[in-house]
Specification:
The chain is of the alpha+beta class. It is built from 4 helices and 12 strands. InterPro entries: Septum_form (IPR026004), TAT_signal (IPR006311).
């Protein structure tokens, strides 16, 4: 997976922060952006400070991923009832036959993560929300191994727009 640093600011300026999925030789299982299986993480998801395969992230998982930049194949999945950087709220598959290029993948990921999936999770439209989102998406290398999944994540920012940790879920935050 690949993750540039999260950016600060309001919704319109917030997201260019994205993550890319690196080749692992396995494909992620997918579902629609608006209705996917949920997963309630437990303290056994990964030990504090431990890392799991980036392909193991499920909707409902919380992550300590603010420092992840560039390509990575692991992500620290942590219990949501403790401090964490982001929470996975939706996932969907891209449908192009061949790798469409990073710009198109990011555009489709942005559209999928900011639309109905965001509103269903947060309780208001992304354009009206102060909560930014990010996403993990396939790279050209992982695409060649069958990866087509985009995993959307949400996080909080302080009054100055700087990412901050969250304790608990942002589901139905309506802000």
């Amino acid at each position: 997976m690949r993750r540039p640093p999260l950016r600060a600011g309001r919704r319109a300026a917030l997201l260019a922060a994205s993550l890319a999925v690196a080749a692992l030789g396995i494909a992620l299982a997918g579902c629609t952006a608006t209705a996917g299986p949920t997963h309630t993480p437990t303290a056994t998801s990964t030990p504090s400070g431990g890392k799991a395969s980036a392909f193991a992230i499920k909707v409902g998982d919380c992550l300590d991923d603010a420092d992840i930049q560039g390509t990575t194949t692991t992500a620290p999945i942590v219990p949501c009832d403790g401090p964490h950087d982001s929470e996975a709220y939706a996932r969907f598959l891209l449908t192009d036959a061949g790798y469409p290029g990073e710009d198109k993948v990011k555009s489709e990921a942005d559209a999928g993560c900011s639309g109905t999936a965001f509103a269903n999770f947060v309780g208001i439209a992304s354009a009206d929300s102060t909560l930014p989102y990010s996403y993990y998406f396939p790279t050209a290398d992982s695409w060649s191994t069958g990866d087509r999944e985009v995993m959307c994540t949400i996080y909080q920012v302080d009054g100055a727009g700087k990412p901050i940790t969250t304790t608990g879920t942002l589901k139905n935050a309506a802000r």
